Amino acid sequence: MLRFLGPLFCWYACLTGGNRKVLPKDTLDASHLPVLEENLPRYAPTGASLVNRRLRLGSFFSALLLKRWIYPALDVRPVVAELFLTDNCNLRCISCACWRADTPDELTRDEWFNVIDQLAEHGFVKLNFTGGEALLRPDLLEILSYASKHSDAELHLNTNAILLSPNLAQQIIDAGVRSFNISVDGATPEMHDGIRGQKGAFETTSTSLNLQDCATGTTLSSVLCSR
Ligand code: SF4
């Protein structure tokens, strides 16, 4: 039964965009709205890159079906890559090990450029930039811009949004990011801040959510824990 329900659930999540939060416009901060709305038409993929991506997705799912039902030995290449830009983080979540050690010697900007080039050659349709906290990297915008210019993939960013100012959000969008995932671990400051290990985290993240919903796809993710 689980083998049947699992794929069904995945398809449902793909079609609905997961646990998507859409705020009515009158809850948005008026100072953020005009500048982001102005740029909305630029955000949707068009032309050859859109056709390319749909063809790649179509062949990926066809190959998966073939592998599952007819030819299990078929080699199916993935279409989404997760790029862990850093292990370091500015929060202290009880469910996470990233922040427990200060990780030096992470990949340099040029090494990430090289990784992106390799992924582009293999026709990935989506690159998820994550961490740790990706916004801690001073070269994040350069890496995102490089990915936008050197691959057809859609760019997605995971962040805890603590450092996400209106200005930085706009720069990230200008660099090519088309969707965000922001972690929220509770509906109240007490619960969220308790899990995230920082007082005020709920307030900061909620403000960023209002901003992100103006311009791009934003999803929320939560870790379920017993306390
Ligand atoms: S925000 Fe994310 S990376 Fe940072 S400590 Fe929490 S779960 Fe880990």
Describe the structure.
- With 227 residues, the chain is of the alpha/beta class.
- 46% of the residues lie in helices and 12% in strands.
- It contains 9 helices and 5 strands.
- Helix 7 links the parallel strand 3 and strand 4 (177-183).
- Helix 5 (109-121) runs parallel beside helix 6.
- The longest helix is centred in the N-terminal third of the chain and has 23 residues, at 47-69.
- It starts with a helix and ends in a 6-residue tail after the last strand.
- Iron/sulfur cluster is lined by residues 89, 91, 93, 96, 98-99, 131-133, 160, 183.
CATH superfamily of the largest domain: Aldolase class I
CATH topology of the largest domain: TIM Barrel
How helical, in percent, are the residues? 40-55%
Q: For the record, what CATH class of the largest domain applies?
A: Alpha Beta
Total domain count: 2
Beta strands, count: 5
For the structure shown, list the relevant keywords.
227 residues; alpha/beta; TIM Barrel; 9 helices; globular; binds iron/sulfur cluster
Q: What is the topological layout?
A:
Blueprint: H1 2-16, H2 33-38, H3 40-43, H4 47-69, E1 80-84, H5 109-121, E2 126-130, H6 140-150, E3 154-159, H7 166-174, E4 177-183, H8 189-196, H9 201-215, E5 217-221
Parallel strand pairs: 1-2, 2-3, 3-4, 4-5
Residues 89, 91, 93, 96, 98-99, 131-133, 160, 183 line the site of iron/sulfur cluster.
